[in-house]
Specification:
Number of helices: 4
Strand content: 25-35%
Largest sheet: 5 strands, antiparallel
Structural class: alpha+beta
Shape: globular
Order of helices and strands: EEEHEEHEEHEH
Helix content: 10-25%
Strand order of the largest sheet: 3-4-5-7-6
Number of domains: 1
Radius of gyration: 16 Å
Length: 168
């Protein structure tokens, strides 16, 4: 099954779930400028059931992970991030990760036994963070190849104008 929205796409492999959405705007985002700062796309993929309520980096979902599970988040940042130091060295989304890329120290929030990795990059003029969590650091040699089978199935297209621009 293929899913696509907001310039992102994923051919969802068997045994995986995938979702694409825009981050919900805070209630105080009353101006187009404030809305633009928070109107980014988020792609989630996991080889376990995804809860409907979860944060951009998987809060609410990663807490349910077990050994053998993997969670992928592709989180877009504001276009002003393109060319900054954080995103300057990462050109294009990584399509292959190694077991050495994962560490408990790279998790957004430490959960005993888990490991993660983060990669900041620019692709097609858009700034992103690829964040991957493994349910078990000890099981990474078995799970990283499963992640590597999904990464090439993710597509990123040119920037999508925010809805408020399209309405003008």
């Amino acid at each position: 099954m293929r899913i696509s929205a907001h310039g992102l796409g994923l051919e969802v492999p068997s045994g995986w779930e995938g979702r694409i959405r825009k981050q919900l705007l805070p209630s105080d985002a009353t101006t187009p400028e404030a809305a633009q700062l928070r109107a980014h796309a988020v792609l989630h993929a996991a080889n376990f059931p995804l809860l409907e309520e979860r944060g951009d980096f998987g809060s609410g979902a990663v807490e349910t992970m077990q050994s053998g599970h993997a969670f992928i988040a592709l989180v877009e940042y504001h276009s002003s991030s393109v060319g900054t130091a954080l995103f300057g060295s990462g050109v294009g989304m990584p399509r292959q990760l190694s077991t050495e890329d994962f560490s408990p120290r790279q998790l957004q929030r430490t959960i005993a036994g888990q490991a993660g990795t983060q990669r900041f990059f620019v692709e097609d003029g858009r700034a992103f963070c690829l964040y991957v969590v493994l349910g078990s650091m000890a099981d990474r040699a078995r799970v990283v190849p499963k992640v590597n089978a999904v990464l090439p199935a993710i597509t990123i297209a040119a920037p999508v104008p925010p809805e408020w621009l399209e309405a003008m």
